[in-house]
């Protein structure tokens, strides 16, 4: 996946968003767990403190005293992390777990019936969760205040949080993976219209559809509409340019024909040198005019045209056989029906006509025309059994004005026009020596 692609950017942004959300979720859930765990621990401490309040033994008018504590293994083991401390008047009692230490309590206990929750340092540096309350014990006018303090090591809360995180992190990782996969699917669905536009652009290039069309989501319609408008403008410009070129070429043909007439009159008057120079210039200009006429005839919508090359070949062979030069030759045609090429029929007729006329002029006894499909292309091969051309001259045969047969009446633009028509249709023309003869291979995009 390319870093510059929209999919990659969306996936990167989604992945970062998922990580941030999951991290914040883990932090929030941990804070909530800590608060819940502390509330549970405080509730347990309050229940133990209430149980310890039963140690107070009222004695009528005498001051109350502390009775034996309830037995609890948590408070029997020294430094177990669970401690209590009770004061009743001048009497003081502590859990066995405190050993010879005492809880660091404030001098003033909380009001009777109220609770004070906080933290304190316990024996051996333990950090304790401390719950304190006070009660009034005894009858008479002077009840005695009973101060109860119960503590628990916060390390147990930290261990519970660590265990909670151990269970939470794998769950969040799985949830993150599912969210990223869901986001990837969502991005794929959201970007699917762009992929449809890409497919339709490919169809435009292959000539399978004239325009992108309007059956797309509203968000991508401005892009599709702009592309279609650009294509409309291009076709109009091509049509205007083709018409201007055709008008210009036709406008030159009449003056050029008049110049040839003047050259003939000069030759009749004995001025053959001047006549030959004029005719040479006129023929050069005619080559350019004919070339522009041929270029103007190439269809501007050639990307959407299609024809059957077998029909074009068959029609050309019938015409060429009736010509004096063609009647002496053996024409061999191997063109299976059904193959369809993406090129206008008139353009293909002109291009193949130039190739087959060239083969007819140079053939000794035979001209072959073969048609077959290969890798999404339609290949048309025209071969004669003539002398061929030097290998060093093959590369320049498609250049304008190149003529190897100076004695003929050709203008040296047939192969150039053919190559231009083939390239305009998205194909390629290749010339090679066939030993004997010359083979011209026309590769055209296959239609349908």
From TrEMBL:
Class of the enzyme per the UniProt entry, highest EC level: transferase
Subcellular locations according to the entry: Membrane
Species for this entry: Paracoccus spongiarum
Chief subcellular location: membrane
Gene3D superfamilies with a match to the protein in the record: Histidine kinase-like ATPase, C-terminal domain
SMART domains: HATPase_c
Catalytic activity: ATP + protein L-histidine = ADP + protein N-phospho-L-histidine
GO MF assignments: kinase activity
TM ranges: 168-191
Name the record gives this protein: histidine kinase
EC number: 2.7.13.3
PROSITE patterns documented for this protein: HIS_KIN (PS50109)
UniProt domain Histidine kinase: residue ranges: 247-448
A Pfam family annotated for this UniProt entry: HATPase_c
Key words, A-Z: Kinase, Membrane, Phosphoprotein, Transferase, Transmembrane, Transmembrane helix
């Amino acid at each position: 996946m390319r870093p510059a692609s929209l999919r990659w950017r969306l996936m990167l942004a989604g992945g970062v968003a998922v990580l941030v959300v999951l991290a914040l979720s883990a932090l929030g859930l941990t804070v909530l767990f800590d608060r819940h765990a502390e509330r549970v621990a405080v509730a347990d401490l309050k229940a133990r403190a209430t149980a310890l309040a039963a140690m107070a033994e009222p004695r009528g008018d005498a001051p109350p005293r502390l009775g034996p504590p309830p037995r609890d293994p948590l408070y029997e083991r020294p430094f177990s992390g669970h401690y209590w401390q009770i004061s009743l008047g001048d009497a003081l009692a502590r859990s066995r777990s405190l050993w010879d230490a005492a809880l660091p309590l404030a001098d003033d206990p909380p009001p009777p019936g109220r609770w004070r929750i906080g933290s304190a340092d316990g024996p051996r540096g333990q950090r304790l969760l401390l719950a304190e309350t006070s009660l009034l014990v005894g009858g008479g006018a002077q009840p005695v205040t009973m101060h109860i303090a119960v503590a628990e090591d916060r390390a147990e809360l930290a261990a519970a949080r660590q265990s909670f995180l151990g269970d939470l992190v794998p769950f969040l990782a799985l949830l993150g993976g599912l969210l990223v996969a869901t986001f990837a699917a969502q991005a794929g669905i959201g970007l699917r219209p762009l992929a449809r536009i890409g497919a339709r652009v490919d169809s435009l290039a292959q000539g399978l559809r004239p325009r992108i069309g309007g059956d797309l989501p509203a968000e991508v319609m401005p892009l599709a509409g702009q592309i279609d408008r650009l294509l409309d403008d291009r076709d109009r410009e091509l049509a205007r340019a083709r018409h201007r070129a055709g008008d210009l070429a036709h406008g030159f043909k009449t003056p050029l024909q008049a110049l040839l007439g003047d050259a003939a009159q000069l030759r009749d008057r004995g001025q053959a040198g001047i006549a030959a120079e004029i005719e040479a210039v006129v023929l050069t200009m005619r080559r350019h005019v004919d070339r522009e006429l041929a270029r103007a005839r190439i269809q501007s919508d050639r990307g959407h045209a299609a024809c059957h090359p077998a029909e074009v070949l068959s029609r050309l062979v019938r015409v060429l056989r009736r010509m004096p030069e063609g009647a002496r030759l053996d024409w061999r045609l191997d063109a299976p029906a059904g193959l369809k090429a993406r090129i206008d029929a008139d353009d293909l007729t002109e291009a193949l006509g130039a190739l087959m006329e060239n083969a007819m002029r140079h053939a000794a006894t035979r001209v072959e025309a073969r048609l077959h499909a290969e890798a999404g292309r339609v290949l048309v091969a025209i071969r004669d059994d003539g002398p061929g051309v030097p290998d060093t001259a093959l590369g320049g045969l498609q250049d304008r004005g190149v003529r190897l047969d100076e004695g003929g009446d050709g203008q040296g633009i047939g192969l150039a026009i053919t190559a231009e028509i083939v390239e305009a249709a998205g194909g390629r023309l290749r010339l090679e020596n066939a030993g004997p003869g010359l083979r011209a291979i026309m590769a055209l995009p296959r239609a349908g």
